[in-house]
Design goal:
By secondary structure, the protein is α/β, with parallel strands linked by helices. Helix content is 38%, strand content 13%. The chain has two domains: 5-202, 3-Layer(aba) Sandwich (Rossmann fold), CATH 3.40.50.360; 208-252, no CATH class.
Length: 255
């Protein structure tokens, strides 16, 4: 069985989120436990508007994500700048086009993490991620938070982006602040941590194919008058079977 495939997908207006996406990539690759691919969300604004916004040139070497590509991956790290505390229209437009994936439960149980950029420390470092959670919930995606794995996240004497919700960067009101080495290191930690969790979630679980050691046999149940347990081999839908396995793996994830 090959390594799980993790996609790093970003939208970046001025280049800040792209820099963090590259740091996420390095963290994922450092783990050695997943295969990684980099994508970006399609632009929806016309060129003249982007020019007036002084947006950075788009990196044409990075392919654009499509729902078909999303379905074939095992996990996702998604990054974008805030727009008044929520995801930008470019990102929402893409997820609005994933109805066919939703109808088939194609993303059910797959892990996903977030990273982001805001103008200030109070500009949406947490609300941007929090407001995006309905997309995960409706697709049945598993949200993997960052927690506080870096000592930089406890500093109060310097501006440092990121939160327990995910890595982040403070760009400044005019976009002049560039990602610091602290913000970049936090993003690399998130990538490495996400790879660790994804590999555990998607690793083959032999226990799922074996009956519980203490499970009673049908004859024991009949003698004791206990109800016969439901068969683990019943003809469930693929999505229900996948969720049952996912829940079992999740219970043992942090043991």
């Amino acid at each position: 069985m090959g390594k799980p495939k993790v996609l790093v997908i970003y939208y970046s207006t001025y280049g800040h989120v792209k820099t963090i996406a590259q740091a996420e990539m390095r963290g994922l690759q450092k783990s050695g436990k997943v295969d990684v691919e980099l994508y970006q969300f399609a632009e929806t604004l016309p060129g003249e508007i982007l020019e007036q916004m002084h947006a950075a040139p788009r990196d044409t070497s990075v392919p654009e994500i499509t729902p078909e590509i999303l379905e074939k991956a095992d996990g996702f790290l998604v990054g974008f700048p805030t727009r008044f505390g929520v995801a930008p229209a470019q990102v929402k437009a893409f997820f609005d086009a994933t109805g066919s994936l939703w109808s088939r439960g194609a993303l059910l149980g797959k892990p996903m993490g977030l990273f982001f950029s805001t103008a200030s420390q109070h500009g949406g470092q947490e609300s941007t991620a929090f407001s995006f959670l309905p997309h995960l919930a409706h697709h049945g995606l598993m949200y993997v938070s960052l927690g506080t794995p870096s000592p930089y996240m406890f500093e109060n004497d310097a501006i440092v982006g990121g939160s327990p919700w995910g890595a982040g960067v403070i760009a400044g009101s005019d976009g002049s602040l560039q990602p610091t080495y602290k913000e970049i290191e936090i993003a690399e930690i998130q990538g490495e941590k996400f790879a660790e969790i994804t590999s555990k979630l998607l690793a083959p679980d032999r226990d799922l194919t074996q009956p519980p050691a203490a499970a009673a046999t049908p004859s024991d149940n009949q003698q004791s008058g206990a109800a016969t347990p439901l068969s683990t081999g019943s003809n469930k839908s693929k999505s229900n079977g996948r969720m049952r396995q996912f829940v079992d793996k999740f219970k043992n994830l942090f043991k």
